[in-house]
Structures are given as structure tokens and as C-alpha cells.
Amino acid sequence: MSVLLDAIKAFLGTDAGCDDRCQYPSSTMFCSVPRVKFADAAKAMKKVHALLVAEWAADETPFNRGFGIYACYRWGAEYLIVKTEAPFDDPAFPTLTKKFLPAYRFERQIKSLMGVTAAGHPDSRPWIKFEDWPEDAWPLRKSFDASKPMPRVYGKYKFVKAEGEGVYEIPVGPVHAGIIEPGHFRFQAVGEDILNLEERLGYVHKGIEKKFESLAWKDGSRLAGRVSGDTTAAHSLGYCMALESMTGCRVPERAQWMRALFLERERIANHLGDLGAICNDAAFAFMLYQMSRLREIMLRTNHKLFGHRFMMDRIIPGGVAVDIDANGKEIILAELKKIAKEFNRLVTIYDQNSSLEDRVRDAGILVPDKARRLCQVGIVARASGLNLDCRTQNPFPPYDRIKVNVPVLISGDVHARAWVRVEEVRESIRIIREILNTLPSGGILSDVGDPAPDTYGFSAVEGWRGEIIYWLQSGPKGEINRCMVRDPSSVNWLGLEQAVLGNIVPDFPLCNKSFNQSYSGNDL
Amino acid sequence: MIRILKQIFRTGIVTEPLLPEVDAEIQEVGARLKEAVGKRFSRSLTIRQVDAGSCNGCELEIHAINNPIYNCERFGIHFTASPRFADMLLVTGPVTRNMEIALRRTYNATPHPKLVVAVGDCGCNGGIFGESYASIGGINKVIPVDVVIPGCPPTPAAILNGILRAVGNR
Ligand code: SF4
What we know:
heterodimer, A: about 525 residues
């Protein structure tokens, strides 16, 4: 039986209305509770050690329903979505922040973009929404006209303050020193030690979730592929799987394996880039150039075989847009052979370089207990002792037929996050070889219809950063009513804030690089 | 140490000549480039990259022009952390509402004469994100643009060619 459903039934009794009529895929459980019991449900989840995956709201006025507030929990392979409703004239619900820390950001975001308040939330400042937006601008509401620019109003963001002798503040960004995305960090420090770090994100908010609502279903995967450019395969796959689960579309076998091929290639390419960048931030430029050379080899193969260096728009609803032939397989196998050999050589150099070791060990530690409380996912979680990976725990095809070895380390420092990447590159190389050997024959695309009105679709995909969640809702005419995207960064940014405490300011870039979270995927 | 040296020798020089992506016109520009950078920028063109709201795809390819294969430094091109030292702004993304002011400030902080190159479909006209409450659209909606480099994202070669075009233009 299901641990999560049992727990919620035991705690709430008949208050928990569990039905799975319109939630897809059917393995994802769904349950609705009265508004006053929303936080109690979280308590029940906490008791069985579930993790909070995401929390979001949907404007359900087209169904004459007010707002739907959703919280998604995870325990091992199980996902449970708990829903409650708030009437339009009283848009509020009890906060979950005291039970689950990541709710802190989710609820600020719900308030800022949907105008639904989490009652009892300790922080009323906006998130993603800037203080110069008109206060009643709630873009995710149906009544909001997204096509018009908004006027700027006067407002000021209140950063957390630290005072006392010798305490000083360092503001960084939004335009950063390197070639990276914009965001703002504010440090309070004494001497070189960081007392507090506050992130202020939202600079790359492009209104993506709102934009989905104006698209046709089949066009959504293009936009999903641009939520975070470095994770284009995994994000478009997340969108497609959620849509396919709603329409009952059966993706051809061969297409499933091709999708896994894209996913693993994306993982290797990004890990190679990250390993180089981490070493570069520890002043070891040699590794940056060597790793970026290997990365370039992979991107060129992608371009040659699949027509795009990052494989954008190659995963589409119903299957994939490109196939591979025998010659293509040979090219990839030869490429991997070369990369594997050189990679191992470089890892030996990394491993034996004591001045590098001096920087990466014991820097930016996120202890397992904190990682758990912050519900971290992906590489960050695995470097801090949490054995989480959707490819093994909630295996979407074809991972139900591939064995994936998940590296887990417990030291939670920069080195651990780098080393998880090293192990994953090796594992992904093995997986790609397996994929190429077993690739079934047949078609690569099937027809996808449009979903029925008022249904929900859900998917969880392991991208190279970690678990990506998509939640789709169809409107009364069967159109896209809401598309909720949760990039791993939405939770892992919290981990970075905690990991740098007590470290010295000059180590921040190194810590930050080892997390390498997406701004675009967080700001949406 | 010996391993590092071995690996360096084994790798050798992997830099490739820059292939024109678009047409012959660019090849001509390419040839003129070294001369142009040499004369006009004392053999060094300094770029400040600004992400004004991209999906990060364009940034990855800008990173790539720094890798040993494209090796932009051979043309005297390098990146700086401060707009005060920059000859060129390389801007990506649709400009988001939340980045508009920061982009304008960065532009104002860059000394004259300055070149602005908009990278990617988004930088050209807002791309897939278009214009909305949160996205202002192409870079030229906010600051004057000299050259645009279309593509989603443009390849490293296209980016290099675009930079060369901007330098050769004036
Ligand atoms: S042009 Fe493409 S890759 Fe570049 S920012 Fe826009 S969507 Fe991303």
C-alpha cells in the first residue's frame, strides 16, 4: 500500500478525499483536504519523513472554483499531491513553512504572482516580483492581461540586516563578474567570514508560466526546452511526459530510448563543463581548458547527428524529432571511447593535485541533516548523503529497464559535489553504451491528442541538476489552464545560502560553482 | 605535475581556423579583423557580457568561444568583469522588465565609443518569449544595438563572426 496515502488517511480520517479520477499518471496519488486541514496534512507527511517537492496555486475561476492550492510530497517512489481550495474573495491558506522549509520560497512566490496569501508566513516580502511592480499585479491570475507592459511604482526591498562592530555588507550583482546569469547576493561578513547570505532572485523572470497558457499543447515543449537552456532535453521531456500522461499517448519504444540517450548526453556535457569551471574557480585553469575541449567534442557530435548542439526541440510530444542510424551509433561509440579515456586521465590529475584538494575539501559544507530539511534534490542531495534519483526511484521509461548506479557521498562539500559529477559522467557513459546496444527498432513518433477538460498531468524527470517537476492543468475547453514548472534550482538555491555560512567570502564563487543552480529555471 | 605536462603535450594545439558560417562577406571581414582590432583597439578588444534575461543557452555558447578550439584570444578578444574597461557589450536574452534598469546602467557605465552586440533570437527580437508584462523584447528596445547575431543559440562560430562584423563595421 501507499505510505503517504495511509498516513494522510490515518491523520485526517474522512476529511481527506482521495480520488484519482482526473490525475495522470495514475501512479501519482491525489487527495483533497479542507482548507483548515492543509497544514495538518503537512504534519502527517512530516511524520512519515516525506519531502516537500513543490507548492503552487492555480486560478480555477474558469471552473467557478476560486483558487486551487497544491502541495506535492515525495516519499521514495511515491508522489502525493494534496489540494485545497480558497474562495476568490478570501484568497488565503495556512502556511506550511513551519513544517517544510522550502515552502518559504514557494509561498512567497504564490503570494507575489497569484495573490494568494499563506497565512502565518514569517516573511511578507515579495519574491520574483520586484518592489517596483504595482502591488495588485498578479500575473498568474486569469484576469491579468499579460500582453501589456506594467508601470513602475516606487518601492524598496528590505534586505536582512546584520549590525555590530566590524560587521560589513557586500552587495553583488545583478550583473555578475563572469559570463553567468544575473542575480543579486548580499553578504554580511566579519573579517573574511560570512555571517549571512541573502539571495535575491527574479531578474530573469520572463513570465514563462503565464506564457504557457497562451500556447497550443503541442507548442509547449518548445517553450519548456527554453526554461533553462542547459537543461533543454530534460525540461522538454518533463513537459512532454506530463502531456502524454493526460492524453493516454503511447510513446514508441524507440523514442523512449532516444530520449534517454539525449538526457544522458546532456548530463555528461554539463558535468564536464562544471568540473572544468569548479577547478577554474580554484585557480586551476588547466582543467577548464581540458574539460571544455571534451565538452566541445560532445556538442559537435550532437550537432552532426541530431542537428543541434544542445538538442533543443528534439524531444517533442509523442516522441522525438530525430532518429539515429548504424553509422551514428558508431560515431557515438568512438567518441565515448575517446572521452572516457581522456576523462579518466584528467580525473587522476584532479585527484592527485593537493593544492586543489586544499580548496575543495571542507569548503561549503551542506550537512546531510540540513539537506534533508531543505528537501534538496539532484547532485546537491546526493553529495549530502541523500539517495535521491528519479531514474531509479520513479523510473520513467526506459529507465525501468536500465540499471543506474547512483553515487552518494556524505561530506556535502565542494569536493563531494564535484565527485558526484565525476561518478555520474562515468555512469552515463556506460548507460549510453547500453542504450545503443539495446535500442529497439520501430517508429519514433506517435499522435498526441488534446487532453480532456479539467484534468491534471504530472511528471518527474531526472535532469542533470536533479528532479524536474511539471504539472499541467487543462481548462474548461481543454486548453492549457496552468503549467507549473519546478526546476531543481527552486529548492537547491536554499541549500547554497546555508552551505556558505562560516566560509570565507573568497570561497563563495567556488561554493556557488559547485552548486551551479539555474537562475532562469528558478525565476521563470 | 608530470602528468599535467604530459597531458598538455598530448593535447597539443587544437585551435581551429574560423570557418565562415554565413557567406564570403564574413571571410573578408575575418581577414580584416586582426587589422581592425589591432588598429582600433590597440590589439585588444575587451568585452563585457551582460545577460539581460536569457535562458542561459546563449551564455553556454559564449563560454565556448573561450575554449581552446575557438580560442577567441587569438584575435585579441577577451572578457572583462567591469563595464568600465569594456569596448563592447555582448548582450543576450529578451530584456526582462526586472533587468531593464541594470542593463541601462551597465550601458551608461561603459565608456564611449562602445559597441553593442545582441546575441541570439531573443536578443534580436525577444525570440520565443516575445513581449509581455515581464519581457520587454529585443535588446534594441532598451539600448542602441550595432550588430545582431541570430540563432537559438547561435553557434560559437556565428558569435565570433558577429563580433568580428561589429568591429569591422565601423
Ligand atoms: S536565443 Fe535561444 S538560447 Fe538564446 S536566450 Fe533565447 S531561447 Fe535561450
